[in-house]
TrEMBL record, chains A, B, C, D, E, F:
Assigned protein family: Belongs to the HyuE racemase family.
Entries under InterPro entries matching the protein: Asp/Glu/hydantoin_racemase (IPR015942), Hydantoin_racemase-like (IPR052186), Iso_Racemase_Enz_sf (IPR053714)
The protein's name in its UniProt record: Aspartate/glutamate racemase family protein
Annotated coiled-coil segments of the chain: none
Length: 229, 229, 229, 229, 229, 229
């Protein structure tokens, strides 16, 4: 998964940008519930901390953007989430954007994430496939026709001018679908890479002036972010 | 602080309700930033976990309600936050409620917390004192006249029919202020105790049907919540 | 109907709480339109007035909460509506709540009621049965399978973490349905009883300081509320 | 008061429109609280009922629009409230409208009324005078300079393109103020008269198909509206 | 088309009102996209300019209301759009209004237009027919049964108390449909005529005090509006 | 002005990006009113058209973003407005952003622009200077202390985590102010350049499949956009 995300990122990275894909050092293998999202936060911070000072911008490549708000505060470089990036990129490419995914079960999480980022008013609607219980690793290919149909409905009936392909299992599927869809398709990871580059140039390393504080009960990488620069 | 909260809770607890006030076993001594709020989440879960099966309902007695959404999912008893409880109680006692505190610096956090709980439309406005840099332990008494004035403005100009006294340093101040204010004053901890009792009777211990999962990198109490009942 | 409501209330009432179920002394037998809702207001106030000083809290057990805002103003004890209570209880038991009923015709009224109480943002969606023209007294049992299916859709597709069973004919049906539904089901009357108890302890009898005024053209019980304490 | 309203109405009425100003036959002399608003509803319905079939459209000339929603349902001709009319007229005369009144105490009621009519998004802001405890009958003239200043702030700083003069005591003041204000001033009664004429021509007498129902406990005029056409 | 619009307008115009139907002197024959809407703006201004001082109020008879905000600023008489008028009239005739059209493809445009006019909260929902690729000139008659069914759903399931027939091809169809629909049907052009009359009486010719400015690159009629009165 | 904008753009442009600053070929020298905004749209389209196929992305460097929605539709490369870019960049750099400008008179325009882009929920508030009637060319320097104070209030009292410097006269002032402000300052032009680069890499030249249409009454450059690729 980490490799696949790294590869997708490199496709759109600017010349000179080096992509390093990193797995969270601990936590849960899969993020599903609100509680999962919470504990994924410190795990994400640990990954960001252990590589600190080796990157100019960071992307949290997990839908739901765990740890994002904290990371923006604690780090002195821009940090973007892939949901956040998908919403902003879609909004800049078209006035109304749609969200398409392979299963209805993801709609609640995306609705809340969209609301958290404040862009609900720009969303033309969700078009989701039926419940799904197969292998997430192959669902994108298996449901390709379904996805093309949902994208057509999003564009033609909801007026979507750009469409976000939502959910981890759809990562990398955009190039296969784009020829069948009349409006731009957005891949969250790729949007995040481009927007992270943009923000890094706009607002370079920016010391946030935290004073050192002692955090107990967490992995040393997390506590290290509180110990100051 | 923990003792003061316990005492305030006991004032309104029903006969037969036993209040046990517990401090989070790790984390940070003070919760101020978004990152603080994130790391306070697992610390709160640890406290809730280590006493598991010994309570029928729980209150997270920290404005901002850290870990609240996760705790509601992971525990089989009702869990309420004191901000959450204050907003709901105020909304049930009056159609428009005001929020009053001793310093403007708390407004952004309360605005976001109010928005998170979805009750922004019920809020008649914030009335906050000027910036403050003294001792939080005595500010409530020192600014008592200021607070009475802010409450009067909230009721008379904003139309507040109930007023939330917001911020940890105002805990327990309601009885002193109430005689000077024409509308009900809400203390978050006390509201939470009464509402937790109410919910415990409405929805007794309710197994949530989680399957056991392995969480790494966190204190054993937190991981224990994922290990199943 | 009044008996059935009283029985449901007693199931959840705390030890020591005495439930007295009262029918409005005049008005209309059934509340359907906006105009009905208006005239049900003074009828509700009359019932509340004629028993004044004999209760510590009141529940208006009619969906749509007629007279609620006026009663909160005129009485010196907490008053809750069953719609209001259902929305608040659901919001405290789960971050997203669903609303389920046996017929689509009730959706507009509930949407407006939800909006009036300011909790629209917390609602995950409505799942309503098809138009219905049979006997309301038996519809709950007849459509039990339908209701179980709607609850499942609400939980699985809308992400509801608690579900309100809406509409008078569903009063008391929750115990029959709960074993078939994975998330807590909320009965408005029962929620209102528990929340009214909670508020009564938080904010005991609270003189509102009205001056005496003369109201003409209404039943003496209603005018009596204006005549002062 | 009734005479003054009638006179203001006649100033803008079309040729051929006859204005009949009617006082509610019972209720309260002054409408201030939510409870007042509720009981004013049936009183307004009684006035509308006792003249039934003698008018082609009706205006409820009380800020807060008591009984409006019920009257729209029960009568077969258009009924408009003066708050409702002011908001719609202002929205049609300018993209952003302001609300100006002589005292801050009226803001909560107008905010709720604006929200009830759904036009909050069009309001550029409220500009209200300081608390007031004098004679409402002369406040408009006494605070004329204050009102002119508030209107200027509304136009210049809030970007108001039309301004509503809100509150009963400002009825009829618009012609005195308009020469000192650069944007159109709206008088609610006058707006309501013109809009009621417009609606009467658009949607003439329209039987609503109610079946006859028995309403008890109210004045015969109110019950009469339920007895059918 | 222009003739048909003029005829519909005359049906509801008051005695003494003269309707002059005018075609935009340039631009595009059909307005579909956002860009079309933009360029239709100056074209509409040109039509309004070339007849200046010959009318007391103007109606822009194109759904989407091109040029409306600019026209309200530049002209000294009331200007209404037919979408704007339909929304306001529907809101005054019923608390919840529905929007019905023959094809889903029009929903996005109407949603945005509704949002622009700030009345989204009053809309009970859209009921649109399936995609359509036939002759717009005859679709209203061909889909009359479909439209009657959609109106019934809007009233019965969405609770619509008035219904807007949306889209140019439905102009003039209301009289055919009204006998089959239980709630008032709104034709945008007719609503606009009545409301323009209302506003003209409320706010007669009102010099806006523009200073003369030079606009280059546009047709002389458009530049003329900037040259001052 | 055009030169100053070009210089600011070049400061943040990536290596390899060539900035060409272009003035609209016709229209008005200053954009103030809604009507100005409308006519600036075709003028902007003309500038974009006359250089077509010579750029990979475009920025409309005028607050209010005239012609933006149309340009996004008509061109096959990304187009960004500087208001749009400022809002999105600020939202990605901090959860709450403030808007600061030298005069209150700009607030209404920015509020509407913010609402148009759908990011109102992310805005922590406006902090604007008093009315201003001097030379816009020097106001930024003259009011530098005022602006620093407004930025401090935005950060400390409104909780802004990034601040947009709004209004043409503040272009290029960010480097002077940044040392005095604790949170990132956003210059709209610079944000737009970085975001346009990002979008150009994400969604390269993308034929929009328009059919050729005839637009009359506009400058040939504008009509040319309708004539097809």
């Amino acid at each position: 998964m980490t490799d696949r995300i790294g590869a997708a990122a490199r496709v759109v990275a600017s010349t000179g940008t080096v992509i390093e894909a990193v797995t969270a050092p601990f936590g849960l293998p899969l993020i599903v519930t609100r509680a999962d999202w919470l504990v994924a936060g410190p795990a994400t911070l640990a990954a960001l901390s252990s590589h600190r000072n080796r990157y100019d911008a960071a992307v949290i490549a997990c839908f739901g953007d765990p740890g994002l708000d904290a990371a923006k505060e604690l780090l002195d470089v821009p940090v973007l989430g892939i949901s956040e990036a998908a919403f902003h990129a879609a909004a800049m490419l078209g006035r109304r954007f749609g969200v398409v995914s392979f299963t209805a079960a993801l709609r609640p999480m995306f609705e809340e994430c969209l609301d958290h980022h404040g862009l609900t008013a720009r969303c033309a609607g969700f078009r989701m496939g039926p419940p799904f219980s197969g292998d997430p690793g192959t669902v994108a290919e298996e449901r390709l026709d379904l996805l093309a149909g949902l994208c057509a409905e999003s564009a033609e009936q909801d007026g979507a001018e750009a469409i976000i392909l939502a959910g981890g299992p759809l990562a990398g599927i955009a190039p296969l679908l784009q020829p069948r869809v009349a409006v731009p398709l957005i891949d969250g990871t790729q949007a995040a890479v481009r927007l992270a580059e943009a923000m890094a140039g706009l607002m370079p390393r920016h010391p946030r002036g935290h004073r050192s504080r002692t955090l107990t009960g967490f992995a040393p990488e997390v506590a290290g972010l509180y110990a100051g620069p």
